Amino acid sequence: MNYPLLAGIGDLLSRRTAELLDQADxxxxxxKEFFIKDESLCYLDGNSLGRLPLATIDRxxxxxxxxxxxxxxxxxSHWIDEAQPAxxxxxxxxxxxxxGQVLVCDTTSVNFYQLCVAAIRARPERKTIIIDSAxxxxxxxxxxxxxxxxxxxxxxxDTDGTGGPGSVKIAAENELVTKELLAPFMSTDVAxxxxxxxxxxxGARANLKEIADLVRSYxxxxxxxxxxxxxxxxxxxxxxxxxxxxxxxYKYGNSGPxxxxxxxxxxxxxxxxxxxxxxxxxxxxxxxxxxxxxKNLGIRGxxxxxxxxxxxxxxxASYEMIERAGIARIAKKAAIGxxxxxxxxxxWLVPLGFTLLTPRDHRLRGGHITIGHPEAKRIAAALRQYAxxxxxxxxxxxxxLAISPLPTSFVEVFDGFERIRDSVARKDYEKIQDSGxxxx
Length: 440
Known about the structure:
Layout: H1 15-24, E1 42-43, H2 54-71, H3 76-79, H4 83-95, E2 102-104, H5 108-121, E3 128-132, H6 137-150, E4 153-158, E5 167-169, H7 179-182, E6 190-196, H8 208-217, E7 221-225, H9 237-240, E8 244-247, E9 262-265, H10 309-325, H11 327-349, E10 355-356, E11 368-372, H12 376-386, E12 389-390, E13 392-394, E14 398-402, H13 410-426
Helix pairs in contact: 1-13, 2-10, 4-10, 5-6, 11-13, 12-13
């Protein structure tokens, strides 16, 4: 097999090679900036929930005592607009977005609904919307509800065999929707296309510019879900002509469970798009308490309600670290780390009956890889219980394994894959019974 990012670095099956990669890693010092209770644990699930930055502990503690506890309601004099500078920080650090186009607010699901409906309302004469079957469940369910609400035709590009409303089978590899696969379904009746920047299950990475240019050529809009991309790859929203996007902050953003999400609206669209939930914070003269809604024409026009200030403190702590590290260096490490995973997969896991469900070309994948096995669910549970490896399982038969570039070392990746090999060879999974826990 060919591993171009690892060419000339030594024996890939030697732990010493992983140690040398860590020694050469420009980001290796960032691991010390995270709370890591157990150094022997191989945490390969940063694509689901990132580790806790030490700075977050100080930042949130300081907020509780020196802001909320001390200032009380007077704190709102400087808290009121914090969704915007936090959005500018996040946009600079991870999205390639100029100031005034990103808000840190609400949840990914709420932001997704807001922007999808706004896109559809901007093209009222159009009656078709497009999604894919491998998209994240919330996105698919929200789109199905929007289609019902507005009596629209929904096309579901069936990339994984699961179908959905208006399902049309396409020959996608690794669940990836390309410009060529999407083009036959485009027309001047399409108001909205929504896809993932990096697929949550397979890790396949979309070409943002090609898709954006195609849909724009028909006069439609694209809403991207970048939840599994932000903080692991270079997105370059402004340069790639992205119109609308949403994402979370608790995966590669390391901002904590339930931390506030973000939305991106290209500046040229902000004055014309109308969101369905017209919140008080989107009112132009917010404290006039007027009788009718008068939308702010900038990015604040997409905010619904009070920002989570304690959540934003966690976002600030983490994304300041990400900005210091540099998204180009982060993306480079993610590419090398996933290449190391694939090399170890080929040598150690293929003989045990695993299949690779992620693109081999690093330009077509994000910060995680996905492997398939008929016993994936029990294997994932056994790795936690018997091998001190934390992966995650996704239906129907896949295990996701990530390198979160700031806290994860190359040795951690190497040790994790070695333990996966040994645990499966021992058939630890045969000792696993269903615990009844619905979280996977």
